[in-house]
Amino acid sequence: MSDRPVRLGWWLSSEEHDPRDLVTQAVLAESIGIETAMISDHLQPWVRRQGNASYVWTVIGAIASATERLEVGTGVTAMVHRNHPVSVAQAAATAAVMLEDRFFLGVGSGERLNEQAFGERWSRAGERRAQLEEAITVIRDLFTGDNVNHRGDYWSVENLRLMTLPASPPPIHVAASAKLSAASAGHHGDGLIGVAPDAHVVDIFRGSGGTDKPCLAQMHVSIAATMDDALDNAWEWWPNGVVPPALLGELSRPTDDESIADAIGRDTIGDIIICATDAGPLIQAIDHFAGAGFDTVYLHQVGPDQQRLADLASAELLAHYSQDT
Hints:
Layout: E1 7-12, H1 19-31, E2 36-39, H2 56-66, E3 71-74, E4 77-78, H3 85-98, E5 103-108, H4 125-143, E6 148-151, E7 156-160, E8 172-175, H5 179-188, E9 191-194, H6 199-210, E10 215-223, H7 227-237, H8 245-248, H9 254-264, H10 269-272, E11 274-276, H11 280-292, E12 296-301, H12 306-322
Parallel strand pairs: 1-2, 1-12, 2-3, 3-5, 4-5, 5-8, 8-9, 9-10, 10-11, 10-12
Antiparallel strand pairs: 6-7
Helix pairs in contact: 1-2, 2-3, 3-4, 5-6
């Protein structure tokens, strides 16, 4: 086990669950002692079987009313075509007020799946990264409560002052999975969001201004009664897990992800999603993230059986990691 304290979080999968169920899950997570949750922000699910893609800000408002202590953040909101930083700043500020400063804004450079519907050009990764960096600047300016005028390379704001603001601006955590995005997260973010236990990414983030800033990670799990059931569940609900990340962000429709996943096959699904019948494999995987430098790991139980994760977290995982805190 790593010497670093590890906090466990709950991942709310907007792609797989009805928005009312997401609120129920948030309440469940809080009830067992989970302190933080991250909710995905999608316009379409990865594959049609997942069946959902609710509007994240409406769901966050409902979670704010249903919980008392749970921190909630987006994982992640992109500003390419679907979202303007003005709209995101207003939504994030309102969420922070509703949650009484229990909110953080997770942002990223986006996937084509969530942007293609607007019929605009899908730009290269470097351009989207620059667009995101400018958006963060705009959002931070709006969080000050000052009147903002901005005319940049990608975004324009004219004569706007946000009026509903929290007591302090919510932190902005930036998703990164490679060298350049990690450096950008260190320079521009209040924290890092990752999806793999990659110490190199964390080191670059730390060396680019991210010293002492939080590092958050998403970890996919499939907990079931048997290993066969766990593998079947992983493949049924999260086959997009086998699609290489560089390709995943370039596909525009759920059917594209399905086709690529079917072509690759399910043989490697257990390498992507931690399939388990008990806590052992999860603890080992969480420790890999902790060893890479992540301090919070959000557990994403794929599929409908969320109670199984709650039971395992309540009975073993939370007690195991409370020793580090």
